[in-house]
Amino acid sequence: MKVEKQVCTLEQAIKLKELGVMQKSLFYWRETLNGFAISFNDNDLDFITGMLEPDTVIEDDQINVYSAFTVSELLKILPFRIYHDRHDYFMKFTHSHKGYRVAYETNKLGLEFNIYGELDRTKLSLFQTARSGKYACNVLAEYLRMLIEHGDGVVTLESVNQRIDNF
Predict the structure, then answer these.
(1) pLDDT of 106 strictly over 50
(2) pLDDT higher than threshold 90 for residue 9
(3) Which one, 10, 21, 59, 117, has least CB within 10 Å?
């Protein structure tokens, strides 16, 4: 499988960085002379500088670099358990013929994001964003984005960055 299918999309990576998610991962989307490509780690400046004229100096703030989170990284970033409104919600990540699905579920009362990204407390039994997707990484990255943007504070940016810092 191509590495592009094993990491979050460039658009997701850009959005997560804009939201303030710490940029620390195994792979990175990097801007090159020919667009964006994936590099192995954040110290791989040769990946970019090898395409430039000799003696060209590149400042860090001139390079567009975004964490290309993998499935395993996103599973470490997303909490296994969320406590909200006096209920424990546990992550459920499944795969079926319809694709991948991620949700936080509890035995009785649940929360769900509606299609507009708004938290809806009237649904029962799940806490869900992306219903399904072909690639696990894209579903998890979208779920993380939705939790940060629309999750009513159940997952904070601080807690996300703390998990990333502990990689």
Answers:
(1) yes
(2) yes
(3) 59
Across the chain, where does the E strand assignment appear? 28-32, 35-39, 65-67, 81-84, 87-96, 99-105, 112-113, 119-120, 127-128
CA 75, CA 162: separation in Å to the nearest integer? 14
Whose tokens are 């959005």? That residue is 15
Distance CA 16, CA 34 (A): 23
| Calpha distance 98→144 (Å, rounded) | 20
Q: What are phi and psi of 76, to 5 degrees?
A: -75, -30
Cα separation, 123 vs 115, in Å, equals 13
**pLDDT tens string 111-134:** 444 444 444 443 333 355 445 578
Would you list the domain boundaries of the chain? Answer: 3-70, 74-155
Residue with tokens 């807690």: 159
Q: Which residues pair with 102 in a beta bridge?
A: 93
Q: Is the full-model pTM beyond 0.70? A: yes
The structure tokens listed for 164 are 């990333």
